Amino acid sequence: MSSILVKADIFNFSEGGFCSSSSGPWAFKANPAGIVENELRRVLLEGTFRLGTNNSRSFSISLVQPPEDSLAGVLNLSTDLTDFDVQRLSFLYVIAGKAGSTNLGVGLGLDRVQESNGNYYSVFLDLGVQGKFSDSGYTSYSLALKRLQLWSQKTQELKLFSVGGGLKLDFEQMVFAFDVAYFFENLDFWQFVPATQLNVEPVKLHVSLPFLYKSLNESNISVEFGVMINLGTVDLGLSVLYPFSPMNSNDLLKELGYKWHIDFKIGFKW
Question: What range does the domain containing 165 cover?
Fold first, then answer.
């Protein structure tokens, strides 16, 4: 049952944007280019719980460096645990900078997956681009390639990655975004995510409607809502995702087969 593990993040929403449109300290999870918009040093802690017939848990800690000498960076260590004999430990290093008015980012990661029949390692690459259509405009675009397997001890893992892009309208207090992504090989499905965010300091609220499509008989729509609260030097976040019809999947480490997704975030900045 654990022979196939999907290495592409299915749902990822973060402060200031959604999927490949994400910007700010948490953006490296969706698009490495987005961390250029972070202005402070931060330590980020996150816990994610996926609940269903069987459950999984993820925990991560990240050190985020704002742009200095034009480059921003992230060091991230995360672990995924399941009710089965499957665990994953990941290390990710991200750098990002500006080329004119365009944000560019790249991340290099290492996975160690433990299964009942042994362990295996893989190396993956993230790439991202973000920019505005005009310097004075409100509309921005984004492109992201996630978890492209450069090397793996399992040959089937080399074809598991996603590519996507999005548009975002940012009016300071209101943000609207629409993202599209395609997941290759073992899943071969599309993801469409319309989303909006309301910024009323010190609170940010967001809602999105992720839609997954594989065929006429395999599709799923979800609702995801979250809040981020700023308490001086501390940020607290909570988001909940509910799929109305979970898809069947051998994916034990991500969201497809689960009924609830609850995410907690804590950020410290200085």
Answer: 13-269
